[in-house]
Amino acid sequence: MDVELVARLRGVISKLARQLNATSTTEGLTPTQYSVLALVAVRGPLGLAELTALEGLNPTMLSRVVRKLHDEGLIRRRPDPADQRAALVEATPAGTQMHQRIRSQRTQVLYDCLERLPAEISDELLRAVPMLEAVAEELK
């Protein structure tokens, strides 16, 4: 395997991530805050321990992010029926709307970029999506 080509791929992925992350800041969220909101919106109510593991944040940082999202009215806490000492967090309607809006903006940014490329390049990149999904699964 060509290590230099792998390094170039990493660089491309990082650049794409920075560009896509900029969409969350236009909505007043940091990329980490949006990531947490997206997990909660997509996966439904989550416990804080599960959310910490999924997001890879330390509990103190996650607590700050959850507090900010809660204060903004984007998520709400509710008791965990399986453990009354614990809480679950879920997206509010406003949080779900914001998640959908940012997701749409990110999709549009990438769509516009692909539209500007020659069709054969766009088509080849889109054919690679299942392979890139397999890479992402391996990184879990």
What does this entry look like structurally?
There is one protein chain. With 140 residues, the protein is α+β, with helices and mostly antiparallel strands. 71% of the residues lie in helices and 12% in strands. It has 7 helices and 3 strands. The chain has helices at residues 3-25, 31-43, 48-55, 59-71, 93-116, 119-127, 129-138; strands at residues 46-47, 75-80, 83-91. A 3-stranded antiparallel sheet has the order 1-3-2. A hairpin with a 2-residue loop joins strand 2 and strand 3. Helix 1 packs across helix 5 (93-116). It is globular.
Total strand count, please?
3
Tell me about the largest β-sheet.
Answer: 3 strands, antiparallel
Cα-based radius of gyration, to the nearest Å: 18 Å
Overall mean confidence score, pLDDT: 92
Number of helices: 7
Shape: globular
Strand proportion: 5-15%
Distance between the termini: 22 Å
**Helix/strand structural class:** alpha+beta
User: What's the quaternary structure here?
Assistant: single chain
Helix and strand run = HHEHHEEHHH
Please give the order of strands in the largest beta sheet.
1-3-2
Low-pLDDT regions = none
The percent of residues in helical segments reads over 70%
